[in-house]
Amino acid sequence: xxxxxxxxxxxxxxxxxxxxxxxxxxxxxxxxxxxxxxxxxxxxxxxxxxxxxxxxxxxxxxxxxxxxxxxxxxxxxxxxxxxxxxxxxxxxxxxxxxxxxxxxxxxxxxxxxxxxxxxxxxxxxxxxxxxxxxxxxxxxxxxxxxxxxxxxxxxxx
Length: 157
Hints:
Layout: H1 2-35, H2 53-76, H3 82-112, H4 133-155
């Protein structure tokens, strides 16, 4: 049963990694098609993906997934995972705060803007802030954190 929680944690972080990197890839593709370069930072119609929170969140998801997969392999070999799991928990706390903080900023900008055509963090027009990659990424990070908390409580880490 306990190994299933580690598998679930790893699966959630894998899903988050795939989602985030697909979003970053799509953002880079859109940016390149519009600007003909991926190195332009200023005077852009849409933000360069390197300057968005999603880009850095994708790295956090990747790091969390690799870390979680390492913990999962140690659990399957009956090794002690208390310290790496606790450190992953810290990463998930930081990632969740970062993600929800950015989403909160996006919500604030969305509802305080008087412009008819509102855009998401990726520079894509949207009429619902809860259908943006920032919201989904935040929810995935929170899900991974909740599973990590359950692991900590069940194993007394």
